[in-house]
Amino acid sequence: MAFAETVQNRRILQGILPFKVTLAENVYAGDPLGISSNTWVLSAHASAEQPIAIAGAKGVVGDRITAFLMASVECTHTAGNTPTDGGKVAVHDSGYYIVAASAKPDVGFVTSVASDSLTSVVCLCPIAPQLTTART
Q: What are 4-47's pLDDT values in tens digits?
């Protein structure tokens, strides 16, 4: 089935390579973060800010939060939007996570789906596509 989050109700299960960021936009835990004009903002597929890190906590403009270069995140979805184990994950224009598509860079993959099909765990490393894409 097509994976699509229905709410931004995420829980960070484990974060790797933590660092502190000061937010220029409001974010939720697990949101993809990018840099715009030297400030940390929500990164979405349609935005110029490519995803680099994962927000470790909910925060508002001016807050200093922990971000991670890689994280294991629990996501919420409906049974009709249940992902497939091992399926690739991308960022939707809204900042939600969805099943990867050819026009969107992969930012991670699904590591497990709960037996009730209402939550799943994804391993996210949004900087990886940036490291493998040649910039001209």
A: 665 667 889 999 999 999 999 999 999 889 888 888 998 865 55
Percent over 90 (pLDDT), the chain: 32
Residue 88 has a pLDDT of 86
Q: Say what the pTM is.
A: 0.84
Task: Give the dihedral sign, CA 62/12/32/42.
Answer: negative
SS3 per-residue string spanning the chain: CCCECCCCCCEEEEEEEEEEEEECCCECCCCEEEEECCEEEECCCCCCCCCCEEECCCECCCCEEEEEEEEEEEEECCHHHCCCCCCEEEECCCCCEEECCCCCCEEEEEEEECCCCCEEEEEECCCHHHHHCCCC
